[in-house]
Amino acid sequence: MGRYLLRRLAFALITLFAVVTVTFFLARAAPGGPFDGERRLPPEVEANLRAAYDLDKPVVHQYARYLGMLGRGDLGPSFRHKDFSVNELIGRGLPISVTIGGLALALAVVVGVTAGTFAATARDRARDRLLVTAATLGLALPPIIVAPLLVLVFAVGLGWFPAGGYDTARSYVLPVIALSLPYAAAFTRLSRGSVAEVLGRPHVLTARSKGMPTWRIVHRHVLPSALIPVVSFLGPAAAALLAGSMVIEEVFSLPGLGRYFVQGALNRDYTLVTGTVIVYAALVLTFNLLADLCYARLDPRIRHA
Amino acid sequence: MRDALFGSLLARVCCGFLGAVVLAAALGPWLSPWEFDAVDWDAIDTAPSLAHWFGTDGVGRDLLTRTLAGARISIAIALAATVVSCCIGIPWGATAGYLGGRTDQAMMRIVDGLYALPFILLVILLVALFGRNIVLLFAALGAVSWLDLARIVRGQTLAVKSEAYLEAARGLGAPTFTVIRRHVVPNVLGPALVYATLTVPGVIIAESFLSFLGLGVQEPQTSWGVLIADGAREMHSSPWQLVFPATMLTLTLFAFNILGDRLRDAVDPH
């Protein structure tokens, strides 16, 4: 298990390095620079600005310097948000994005696994059909639709929750629900399939014939192995959740990582874009490592390898 | 396969609906009395009526025509991106499966690694930095959605690998890549194309996200993402501007998912 995790860690670090490199060179290769405003700057001012941000040096030199800075945990100054370093901007946005993303994923797993197990234990009965149809519908309801509708009904119409902001716990309710819905649906379908598969195995039949109550069979003999595909979907789900979280931050005007990324990309704020991509990638890769850890705990074939 | 598409009432309804959407997207903007970008000065921001079935938007453009014009772009991008993903995923999976051994392991390890990466960031970066044109949009979306396809094609390739016709081709001295191209790929193409249709809803969602954020399709062109973003801004005063495009998107995704499930069951009984 130690070797397995070590290999995963090495793989994650290599991936992160590749992400840094690709993002850095893409941002530099794009036409247009960060100082292309509506008004052209006098050439000498622009030359000074470029020198201040090291843009007058060869790209390889800039890349080496950037890697050196990264090694010290410094993502550099923002090109557009004057007087702010990228670290400061990300430091502000990160807690909001992580809270919403983490809560949404947790909600999706809890709701999805519960609903999936519930459906699998009543295979092809009304309850199962209803849940499967609901899950298929949930997959077709992306945040760009659900978020505005939730605002319209629960914020504007009923006034139960705020339509934006991040100052109280209540303001997180709608964003988290809107973000988690398609994933709750995906986890429902996934866990329904795997629970149904495990329910058909001989050891479950033995437990059943001993007269063990269903909830106990599910808890003791089914879920531990049925959860393996769920855990292995956690990593890809976290990666996919990112796009939705950008939409959610836009709709609920939350100053999270996603907004800095989108703004940075539109303004060609090289350091901000590269910085957010690196932080996003590091988050997702760390999360993947944690998921691998759970995976190794659940699957004895990996634990004893 | 035929059973999967037409076997049950629900599947038939979904097929019919998708067919109608594609047909309406292709012909609708042409049949409609309104242009998708033409302004009706007598009907600005009006609710659905006989003249404008879906109502009009804030500058008096017919929403039905715009929804269909948006469908045209959204579906066209999704299909083009799916073709791009086939061009990468099918050769990748066939090569990995056919060669086997270490090459296979390395190629599939790369696929596993890529799964965990937030690719949407790369797509956003590309369209934001290199201009928001439609070709770049579908090329980028296609280039990041081939992973599932590569896995499926590899599995199918393993299944046909020991067939006699491949043995014969090898025996006649055909080079490895000729065997893959001429004999493996054509034989795994059927199931691969079925799975490719499952890529379509994912790309439609990704495109709508990008357009919603203002990073995808640009005015005066429109797509479902653009319409939903506009509708969300006006939903307090003119809810129909959100409801119609949102319903179209949801129903289309729902129909794709239902048919996708049926096709998956038909191709892969596991």
Give the C-alpha Rg of chain B.
Answer: 22 Å
Portion in strands of chain A: under 5%
Helix content of chain B: over 70%
Indicate the low-confidence ranges of chain B by residue numbers: none
- Gap from first CA to last CA of chain A: 6 Å
Low-confidence stretches of chain A: none
Radius of gyration of chain A: 24 Å
User: Number of helical runs of chain A?
Assistant: 12
What structural category arises from helix and sheet content of chain A?
mainly alpha
List how many beta strands of chain A DSSP finds: 0
Give me the secondary-structure topology.
The complex is a heterodimer of chains A (305) and B (270).
Chain A: H1 2-29, H2 43-52, H3 59-71, H4 86-120, H5 126-139, H6 143-157, H7 173-199, H8 202-209, H9 214-251, H10 257-267, H11 270-298, H12 300-303
Helix pairs in contact in A: 1-11, 4-5, 4-7, 4-9, 4-10, 4-11, 5-7, 6-7, 6-9, 7-9, 8-9, 9-10, 9-11, 10-11
Chain B: H1 2-6, H2 9-31, H3 63-99, H4 101-115, H5 119-129, H6 134-143, H7 147-160, H8 164-171, H9 176-212, H10 224-233, H11 240-267
Helix pairs in contact in B: 2-3, 2-11, 3-4, 3-6, 3-7, 3-9, 3-10, 5-6, 7-9, 8-9, 9-10, 9-11, 10-11
Quick recap of the structure?
The complex is a heterodimer of chains A (305) and B (270). Chain A is an all-alpha fold.
Structural commentary:
The complex is a heterodimer of chains A (305) and B (270). Chain A is mainly alpha-helical and 305 residues long. Chain A has helices spanning 2-29, 43-52, 59-71, 86-120, 126-139, 143-157, 173-199, 202-209, 214-251, 257-267, 270-298, 300-303. In chain A, helix 4 (86-120) runs antiparallel to helix 9. Chain A is flat, with a radius of gyration of 24 Å. Chain A has 12 helices and no strands. Chain B is mostly helical. The interface between A and B is large, with 48 and 44 residues.
